[in-house]
């Protein structure tokens, strides 16, 4: 009987924490992605897909 009371208390506590956390998270402002470096013009324009080329040294240990 004691185990059932403790499990019920743990369940109610977890439910309360999850509910309160959900309310707090819903009130946070939405995240916005901004570039780290200001760019004068955008890479992609409507009708043209942005092409990004990544270059780097190949790891010599991998064949």
Automatic annotation (TrEMBL):
Residues passing through the membrane, by range: 7-25, 37-54
Sorted UniProt keywords: Membrane, Transmembrane, Transmembrane helix
Domain of life according to the entry: Bacteria
Protein name (database record): Uncharacterized protein
